[in-house]
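Quick note —
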Amino acid sequence: MRILALDHGTVRVGVAVSDELKIIASPLEYIPAEPFDAFLARLQQILREKEAELILVGMPRNMDGSYGPAAEKVREFVARLKETVTPPIRTWDERLTSAQANRMMIQGNVRREKRKEKVDAMAAAILLQSFLDSGAGS
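Predicted structure written out below.
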């Protein structure tokens, strides 16, 4: 069984998945956030294909650790997900994951156009890897 990570955004939701041993996170894809029914249909398909036992959702926090308006949107997103998906959902601090993903791709000489379409899945993978490395998923 695997863990599926979601990096929620208003336009796109980045998706990453762990290996079966829950050691390595890999970026998978991004799913357009709207329409929500289409997002859910694709998410359900991925959950079946990857046999995910847990969904990890990035929770945005301010640098001082407090929660802002973006965190409230994620809470609403998680509440909607809980109504429709079977695996349990857990949130995880996602501070700086998108910035880190962009930096990694710039260092890898990924062109700007390609970065835009890959950054969400990469941010989800960074989020998931930090969760796996913490031992919280064991």
